[in-house]
Specification:
Blueprint: H1 5-12, H2 16-23, H3 31-44, H4 50-57, E1 62-67, H5 73-88, E2 92-97, E3 120-124, H6 130-138, E4 143-146, E5 154-157, H7 160-173, E6 179-183, H8 194-208, E7 218-220, H9 225-235, E8 244-247, H10 250-262, E9 272-277, H11 282-285, E10 288-291, H12 294-309, E11 319-321, E12 325-327
Parallel strand pairs: 1-2, 1-3, 3-4, 4-5, 5-11, 6-7, 6-8, 8-9, 9-10
Antiparallel strand pairs: 10-12
Length: 344
């Protein structure tokens, strides 16, 4: 016998109307009641009828999720959290891939394809052109950006300038002066501020310490392990190599660790390495990193778009900044005398 909404209401100790509102994420229901109802529904195996909900509300019960990648760790982790939060409120996620080849003039991302198919949009640091952003705005739907700040839109992110500054300050506090930055090309992608912001934090920290950033120590790794490995091989083979590397993501930091190994350099004895993210493998390899709440960004972004769909516009056009924290492990230490990097 199929589980009915009345069964969920009885198990949760609330009315059927409250069950309906809670499973749709309406702001008129407290967070505690929502959790109670969701647990009761999950325990009983209750599944919201999409057709019934759509007929009753005029909604599609779907949120469009726009992402440039699905296989990279950050995006996969955020996507999992977004989908889990949406599903808990009876919504489906419509995934729209916007890889770099799709953002050119020949085949731009067309937001119009989402019209009448979704009730809201979540955008994950997608490299959208001005034309593509205008298309998203023209939909007139609740929209939340995760991982980037877009003027006039709701966003959930971390302070990437502070991330770059904090990572560099950690290396400076250990005594390093030849500190390299390994990041993404600040000119690409178009509306993705993370590479340039983390680079700006690196430059700011060095200048406050009285050091001018060396262009030879400012290299790009495409936010991939392979790209970082290739760049780090060149960087660490310089006549006067850096004694420390700030990699703007853990995946790039892994590339630096591999390059150091293949060049016969000890970490942290000859080169210290710090990353950003707290990737699932970071603790395993002992990587010092700036941990960001990746899943929390996804869950928060999904909740905000659901609240706005439900009529709560109190967070609209606000930027929610989530904290990061330093995880000091074994890949950073004071520069050795033999490296030539010690302060004298």
């Amino acid at each position: 016998m199929p589980v009915r909404i009345e069964d969920v209401a009885r198990a949760a100790g609330v009315s059927t109307a409250t069950v309906s509102r809670a499973l749709r994420g309406l702001p008129s229901v407290s967070e505690q009641t929502k959790q109670t109802v969701r647990k009761a529904a999950a325990d009983l195996g209750y599944v919201v009828s999409r057709s019934a909900s759509s007929l009753a509300t005029g909604r599609t019960m779907t949120v469009g999720v726009v992402t440039p990648y699905v296989s990279r760790w950050f995006y996969a982790t955020v996507l999992e959290a977004v989908e889990r939060e949406l599903r808990g409120s009876g919504y489906d996620a419509l995934l729209v891939g916007v890889g770099e080849p799709m953002t050119g003039a020949d085949a731009p991302f067309r937001a119009e394809m989402l019209r009448n198919r979704v009730d809201g949009v979540v955008v994950l640091t997608a490299p959208l052109t001005g034309r593509e952003l205008d298309g998203v705005r023209a939909l007139g739907l609740p929209t939340v950006f995760i991982g980037s700040a877009v003027a006039g839109a709701t966003g959930v992110r971390i302070d990437d300038v502070a991330v770059g500054r904090t990572a560099t300050e950690h290396l400076l506090s250990l005594g390093h002066r030849r500190i390299a930055h390994l990041g993404g090309d600040p000119q690409q992608p178009l509306n993705f501020s993370t590479p340039s912001d983390r680079r700006a934090g690196w430059m700011s920290a060095l200048r406050v310490a009285g050091l001018e950033p060396d262009p030879a120590y400012d290299v790009f790794g495409d936010f991939t392990t392979k790209g970082a490995y290739d760049a780090a091989r060149i960087l660490l083979a310089l006549p006067e190599p850096p004694t420390a590397v700030f990699a703007a993501s853990d995946e790039m930091a892994f590339g630096v660790l591999l390059a150091a190994r293949d060049l016969g350099l000890g970490v942290p004895e000859q080169v210290s390495v710090i990353g950003v993210d707290d990737h699932d493998l970071s603790e395993l390899v002992g990587l010092t990193t700036l941990a960001q709440p990746v899943s929390e960004q996804g869950a928060t972004g999904a909740r905000l778009v659901l609240e706005e769909i439900a009529g709560d516009a109190s967070h609209r056009r606000q930027h929610v900044l989530l904290p990061v924290s330093l995880r000091e492990r074994v890949t950073t230490a004071s520069p050795s005398v033999t490296s030539g990097g010690a302060v004298t």
